[in-house]
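Homework-ish question, so no full write-ups if that breaks the rules, but can someone show me the predicted structure for this set?
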Amino acid sequence: MKVTMDVNGAREERDVEPRTLLVFFLRDGLGLTGTNVGCDTTSCGACTVLMNGQSVTSCTVLAAQAEGASITTIEGLARGEELHPMQRAFREHHALQCGYCTPGMVMAAVSLVSENPDLDERGVREGLEGNLCRCTGYHNIVAAVLDVARSARGEAS
Amino acid sequence: MSILGNRVVRREDQKFLTTGGSYVDDLVLPGAAHIVYVRSPMAHARIRSIDTSEALGAPGVVAIFTAADIDLSPMPPGAPFVNREMSRPWLAGSVVRFVGDLVAAVVAETREQAADAAELVIVDYEPLTPVIDPATAEANATFVHESAGTNVALRLPEDLVTVGMMPAEAAQEPPDLFEGCDVIVRQRIVNQRVAPCPLEVRAAASSWEDGRLTHWATSQAPHAVKGELVQLFGVDEDAVRAIAPDVGGGFGAKIGGYPEELFVAWVARRLGRPARWVETRTESMLALGHGRAQIQEAELGGTRDGRILAYRLGVIQDAGAYPAFGAFLPMMTRLMLSGVYDIAKVSFSSCSVATNTNPVVAYRGAGRPEATAALERMVDIFATEIGVDPAEVRRQNLVGNDRFPFTTPTGTTYDIGDYQAALDRVLEAAGYAELREEQRRRRESGDARQLGIGLSSYVEITNGIPGSEFGSVEMLADGKARVRTGTSPHGQGHVTSWAMLVADQLGIAMDDVEVIHGDTDLVPRGVGTFGSKSLQSGGVAVYQAAGQVVEKARRLAADLLEANPNDIELDKERGLFAVAGTPSVTRSWAELAAASGDEGLSAEVDFAAPGATFPFGAHLVVAEVDTETGLVRLARIVAVDDAGRLLNPLIAEGQVHGGLAQGVAQALLEEMIYDEQGNPLTSNLADYAFVSAAELPSFETHPMETPTPLNPLGAKGIGEAGTIGSTPAVQNAVVDALSHLGVRHIDMPTTPLRVWSAIQAARSGR
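A: Not a homework solution, just the prediction itself:
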């Protein structure tokens, strides 16, 4: 079947099997391998992307369900050379190690802050509960997200 | 000013944050066939027949292989001294030995087609009695490996004596072990089986061209993978290139070459086209090696006033269906048996057994967390028994600063430490007296939420496997440096750290240092990254190679400037060589590289440290335990860790953070559970209680730096220490919260059900 969607600002149209998941549409169809697969039960969040501005686990969305949608992956987050504040904060806070959970974690964090910049530590921890990381112990991830949330509220970090 | 010791943000992050890493499954490999394995759904069964006829006719299927098709010698043993009759076949032939054991390989044009066809392979199993409980495996009449005639894979100390690793007299238990002890406490402790769970599952890809193999693997040790492939196919060293591209975490479980991975190369050769494989998370939970899995019988004796005199630990190690490194873990436990304490008399024995479960491998700490967990639990039980504060008991028994190098009763020599300072520091940072006061208030008021304060003093061994690690530095024509390292980072930040080391020595910018790793064509030798060894072996090699390049450059500059080499100085601020006192006449790195001609300006070092190093520290955990529900909430984790001199505190802290989280994970949440028939009950991330951000507090970390004399950087390893220290601190905090109710011990993971049950049992006097 034919699927059309907007991915990182470009219109993409592909023929796919009906059972194709959005994550494989992105990875295999478009070569956007920044989005990773970490589990098979929608538990780890590694495949998180933005669909119409909201975070979704792309392993649990059919490509067909994204028909006409606007998708943002990690590859589409920066504006040219300029990193998104969340990307910058992850780097400055050493919020990544092996990097595998990172794209999904960053996308989930972007969505979390945009939904509610008035976040405290508890809010970040619970908001990111569905994104698993094995390397960082989450400490620096939480610090990075709180930093971005503070900036989004117009406070000095 | 030196960049060493500064909090330098990582250079590798840009890629991870914008396009994502380049992991094995991201590889574009045109024409590759996809492999999906048929795995055993039974823990122990005889294979009566395998019918592949229907599957062979499925769309896209290229081939299906079973054990009968394989013309390879058996897999090499995964560890020394382990019973050779228990080695692993490539695919199970007549018997399957754990749920997840490999039965057949289905190869198709696409991954989906291979997965669909694998469902159509019909295997007729005749169930056999499974051996699941390690505690009874030795006495079990059923053998996991019939030809072995036993389920014992390795036994210490007897096997140690046999292989000559210890003098016979030292292996014997002193006859009067507990003589002179006023108090002897005993406890059976289960250090449960856990799943390492790197976020990236295993994957492999292989391509043969003109008799030469290129093999990509999710590995911590690509040179070892190359060695295995060379041996496997009986080809020349030059005929195999192994590549570990970006690897999404390993934690010890990605050290070894698994049959699933190596077999991909065989399929590619057999079919004459590239082949690739990636597992699902469920497969990974079933068949990526598990960790820990010890049953411990501990006894500790001492005086009423708190002096520990004797300690005995007996271990049953579950090694799983094909005992490899897991069988060897008690060796590491034994090395660290007496921990930070000066205990005169100790005794250790272990029995590693085969069971019908997934093989156990190295997992963050590998045998040392098990040693620390047992000892730290016993110290707390002893302290409770004699009514002395657990901090005070620890203080009384720590190895003093004047004792280093200190050789323990099990023959381990600790390089250097300051255990007292670490303990004092953690007590002070946590506000120990105030915490005890708060605990007392809650106990007196009968608060439903009781406070627990858990301590752990630890020491562990890093870079413990003798041998060298490779590092080279080459000055390029443009004045930039190229580093090749035998380490294989998968999150540890070597691209940043090694650049710091070289930039510091050469006086060039970090951005002008390229670091190459993980490719056996580009790095001539290497051991890899595990056992918290990288900085103190591979990092030192790179550091020394850079030093040698500077020396060569100095001599070259002396020739060019017609001066004595001793008068040539490297101005590190400018990256220029000049004659002392004449700073205006200089030679740049690029000029020297050009002048070096064919010989080049480079150096290679294989650095072998004179011995292992022993990081140490003290952790304190504050837990709130809800006595009505059994739920544990961690209020604080305070960690003092000393891994010698820190090269990049930002990265070192990150290692500690991850270690702490994995310690909490084992203490509170995670357990890989098999039922009595050997069915895994926690075989995906929905069932397995992988620790998330929501269960953790922010960490309070306090570094200490006691440089080791064993390498020029003064560095010890920091990768595993966090896990080793935090696991018992969390468990001790949970028990401590309930000790006044009569709770003496709760096995990990201290789940609400276990905690609640322990409270009920204590209240009813059971």
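Now go work out the reasoning yourself. Hint: The two ends of chain A are 49 Å apart (CA to CA).
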